[in-house]
Amino acid sequence: MRREADYFEDREMDLVYIAKKLDEALRLESALTESGVDYAVETDKYSGGIIFRHERVGAFFYVLPDALDQARSAMQQHGFRFPEWMEENPK
Fold first, then answer.
1. Dihedral angle over CA of 19, 24, 25, 28, nearest 10
2. According to CATH, what is the number of the domain 5-84?
């Protein structure tokens, strides 16, 4: 379930996904909520493009470390792929 940042207080959160499009963000929100995962989402900037690099805005999804496996499982079930940096360094 989507939570406001103050719900998590000062606990460390893990970044699980950066949605680059609104429909992708909505689909991920639905998957995490359906699976009972508490998560926070906020917009932030990221660098995009290969030849012409520029800043873009995306939806950054965060979960508590103890919910990471549940979040990844829900994401896999709904067809989300993990960024290369997450696949190389699984927790």
1. -110
2. 3.30.70.120
